[in-house]
Design brief:
This protein is an alpha+beta fold and about 475 residues long. Helix content is about 50%, strand content about 15%. The strands form two sheets. Strands 3, 4, 5, 6, 7, 8 and 9 form a seven-stranded antiparallel sheet that branches. A two-stranded antiparallel ribbon has the order 1-2. A hairpin with a 7-residue loop joins strand 8 and strand 9. Helix 1 crosses helix 5, helix 6 packs antiparallel against helix 12 (about 375-420) and helix 8 packs across helix 12 (about 375-420). The radius of gyration is 43 Å and the shape is elongated. The two termini are about 65 Å apart.
Length: about 475
């Protein structure tokens, strides 16, 4: 039998003996002689409890000679942590002062039962006390290394590094799409000024707008002619979007207007119908200079500025980017859907002009011969898989901690119901549910999913 358990049994026997018939034992002391010095000693501690401890552990009657000991179980109970207290010193010292040796055999069964209860109570108190300690207190108590805390710190470091690298990649992609939008503005919008590319407050220039019909048609002519010649005139590698038959998708002009609206000058009368309709017409690519007035007149497509709400010019261009971007050395293919809008919803004589482009990435086709920086690609993959493994381990540990906490809660409910005839309240039961663990679990799941998608993107598995 381990000496620690012997001293624990010794201490608990003393405590239980003190709870029995204290008035009868309080006045009793045991006078014994020290076998080495011959001095007479007065023992204020219980002699019955060590006797029962020897019977329970060794199975034999103890010596009648008094032996002094340091009772290490009391020190252990008191040193668990000064913040939480223990059953130790108060109750045990009371048992030492009240104990005696007379009439011990008749009280043997009662003392053993009380000792069992005291042991169960102290064990439950120790478990609850340890559960509500923070990692540093657990380190001070048991010298248990805070591996879960260390794992979270390592995870924070790796995920932060992963986000920095991936953020730089995404930043380059966003800059690429924004730069293309600026390029399209210079190509397809008449009289575009570079000062409009700088966001400042107050703005350096007013809104881009047209105020006359001739200016309105000039803007449309410029956009259509630029689209017809974009492959030859632009510096960037822009190409038309072809259909399945190899034909170029035509440019489309869409008009949104009121169904009916007219004004009779002089008597201030009008006819107005709030119903809106949309009409569209395709403009095929041609080498001949385009004239909006002639084309609309030839196709019986008129524009009434009184009823006009918005005119949109839509077309798409494709491009291939050969720029080196991180581990992705292969070409990136994009399709840009370009929308030029003329907004006349306020009917205030000012028609605002706006250009917007929506990029869509697609898989490139062809025989691509390119070099790959394998060391950088492997390093990024190792980081992605390391984050996934660490998050999976963190997820497992947090789930296990929650499961064990719920087991402890169930045992605590049964313990308080059996020994104190009391049920724990909902608030007390919720103390066994650590909200930080739930937050970490959700965070780990999202990081695992994001890292898997990031690995697929960097390895060209998905678009």
């Amino acid at each position: 039998m381990h000496p620690g358990w012997m001293s624990q049994a010794h201490s608990h026997m003393q405590t239980s003996a003190a709870s029995l018939d204290g008035d009868d034992w309080a006045s009793r002391r045991t006078t014994m002689k020290n076998p080495s010095t011959g001095e007479t000693l007065v023992d204020t501690r219980s002699t019955l409890a060590p006797t029962m401890a020897n019977i329970a552990i060794n199975g034999s009657e103890p010596d009648s000679t008094f032996h002094q000991d340091n009772d290490p179980s009391d020190e252990e109970m008191e040193s668990v942590h000064p913040r939480y207290g223990s059953l130790g010193s108060g109750h045990v010292e009371l048992g030492r002062q009240r104990s005696g040796v007379s009439n011990a055999p008749s009280r043997l069964g009662a003392i053993a039962g009380c000792e069992e209860h005291a042991f169960i109570m102290e064990r439950m108190r120790s478990r609850l006390r340890y559960y509500f300690m923070n990692p540093l207190e657990k380190w001070e108590t048991r010298r248990q290394f805070p591996y879960k805390l260390t794992l979270q710190l390592v995870k924070i470091f790796l995920v932060t590094l992963q986000l920095i690298l991936f953020g730089s990649y995404r930043y380059a992609s966003v800059n690429y799409t924004y730069d293309n939008r600026i390029t399209f503005s210079h190509l397809f919008i008449k009289d575009w000024d570079s000062s409009r590319e700088i966001t400042s407050y107050p703005p350096n220039t007013g809104p881009l707008a047209v105020y006359t019909k001739d200016n309105f048609y000039d803007y449309i002519d410029n956009a259509v002619n630029a689209y017809n010649n974009v492959v030859d005139t632009s510096i960037g590698p822009y190409y038309y979007h072809l259909d399945n038959e190899g034909k170029v998708f035509p440019l489309m002009i869409t008009v949104e207007e009121y169904l009916a609206a007219s004004i009779v000058p002089g008597n201030e009368s009008y006819v107005f119908d709030t119903t809106t309709i949309k009409r569209s017409i395709d403009v095929p690519v041609s080498d001949i200079p385009f004239s909006t007035r002639n084309f609309l007149a030839a196709n019986n497509f008129s524009i009434n500025f009184v009823t006009l709400l918005e005119l949109d010019i839509t077309f798409s261009l494709r491009t291939i980017r050969f720029r080196d971007l991180g581990p992705l050395k292969s070409p990136d293919c994009f399709s840009f859907k370009i929308l030029i809008s003329f907004l006349n919803r306020d009917h205030d004589g000012q028609m605002l002009v706006n250009l917007d482009s929506t990029p869509t990435k697609f898989l490139c086709k062809g025989n691509n011969k390119f070099t790959v920086n394998r060391s950088e690609k492997i390093a990024r993959s190792i980081m992605n898989y390391s984050v996934i493994v660490i998050c999976a381990l963190s997820l497992f540990l947090c789930c296990r901690a929650i499961y064990r906490a719920q087991q402890l809660k169930t045992e605590a409910v049964i313990f308080f119901r059996n020994y104190f005839n009391k049920d724990l309240t909902i608030q007390e039961r919720l103390n066994f549910l650590n909200g930080w663990y739930i937050l970490i679990i959700v965070n780990d799941i999202l990081i695992i999913i994001g890292s898997a998608v990031k690995e697929q993107i960097e390895n060209k598995v998905v678009d």
